[in-house]
Amino acid sequence: MKLSTLIFLVIFSFTASLAKIETEDAVLVLTKDNFDEAIAQNDYMLIEFYAPWCGHCKALAPKYAKAAKKLQEIDSSVKLAKVDATVEFKLAEMHGINAYPTLKFYRKGAFIDYSDSREVDDIVNWVIKKSGPAAKDLPTVDEAKSFIEAHDIAIVGFFKDVESPEAKVFMEVGNANDYMFGITSNEEVFKEYGVEDGKVVLFKKFDEGKNEFSGELSVTQLENFIAVHSFPLVVEFNEHTAPKIFSGDIKSHLLLFLSKEAGHFDEYVEKIKEPAKKFRGEVLFVTINTDEADRTRILEFCGLKKSDVPVMRIIEVKNDMAKYKPEKPELSNENILEFVTGFVEGTLKRHYFMQELPEDWDKNPVKVLVGSNFHEVVNNKSKNVLVEFYVTWCTHCQKLMPIFEELGEKYKDSEDVVIAKIDAAENELPDVEIINYPTIILFKKETNEAVQYYGVRTLKGLTKFLETDGAYGRAVDEAQEEIEDDDVPRKDEL
């Protein structure tokens, strides 16, 4: 065989072994067989890990396709891709995916999380920013003006020596930040904006118009400066701002529930900017327009009804999502100032939801628990008490309910077993932290030890958990013999 023929066959064999990368609406379809090939072929790629049954994924799909087509139209080197995580579960596991959709950006050998909204223009702008230089060069006054005018937020570094340590700090932050960065060494630009060498200015189309960084220029200090001043004093909650509100560094939020139709925004927003300025960097002031149907869940989460508007609450965006209720509900500057001051100084007591105890709470086989009777029931040392912590909107909770009713019926005559349930959204317990729903916990008699159940949610599995005194199913890797894929709850569905 000729050498040229041999080389041809080797190349052909290698090419044939590569899995074809198909596209759907300009989006690359990735699998375990072509994932590495796609990475090798593209320096920049945004990858969506999705599940076909996920409502959020379905809502994103047409926007994602439009963004992919826009990038094609401008001949961008960035590609958009997607992975069906329910099929390619090993790929999803390898990238730490535990919620859908999750978007990850591949950039020349490294993955970073997508951190903007899921709107078409935001997706396009974000990936263009991440695939370009850390900061745009601004060599003239006209180019600086055009750059600042083109963006709602533009961060400009003024450095005569662009290789100085300070300029390198600026570029490092710009490389990791979502906002648009520009850099200039032109003295005419310095004069135009009245800025000295070594300064960083955040230009914005709201509030003061611009903020100048002061202090020692370090990555941490500059990132903190941007996090604080890139938000309006009072930010409105919507699909564009929500990702930044909840993923931002400021975890304490004053939520102001208002109605645009009732004129509340005109009446209150300007007035509350003064107290917002006082607590800038400590508490984020967020307005929520309750006229929007999808804001109802936030009202419910705070234990409020639409008839309560206008109203305010403070929440801490952490695992247990602590909530605080003002003693004086009116939205006056004085009341807001007193409320937020009390929170910052630690003098406020946390607000816990609690339903009224139904008169017939123990009438049925599955007992009804609320905040006021919870500890009395579960701390009864003569009883094993199995409690389901649920929320009404959770599909897994709804699926479990009839099984729990069967379990209650099975043990209704037992002298030492109580089957109970508690609405965890309506009844908050200071000493019990529930993260996922439903959560099933056995409070053991004699010791009151709390043992969480991780086994399959069937009558058989729950019965075995009780009969083994909480030994069966107390760990994730136990009680797996009858589990099917559809039985395993997913956190992102909750």
Word description of this protein:
The chain is an alpha/beta fold. Helices cover 33% and strands 21% of the residues. The protein has helices at residues 3-17, 35-41, 55-73, 89-94, 120-131, 141-150, 165-176, 187-193, 219-229, 242-247, 264-268, 273-278, 296-301, 333-345, 374-378, 395-410, 459-467, and strands at residues 22-24, 27-30, 44-50, 79-84, 102-107, 110-113, 136-137, 153-158, 180-184, 199-204, 210-212, 234-236, 252-258, 284-289, 311-316, 323-324, 366-369, 384-390, 417-423, 439-443, 450-452. The strands form four sheets. A six-stranded mixed sheet has the order 1-2-4-3-5-6, with helices on both faces. It has a five-stranded mixed sheet with strand order 7-9-8-10-11, sandwiched between helices. Strands 12-14-13-15-16 form a five-stranded mixed sheet, with no helix packed on it. β3, α3 and β4 (79-84) form a beta-alpha-beta unit. α3 crosses α5. The model is unreliable at 1-17 and 478-494 (pLDDT under 50).
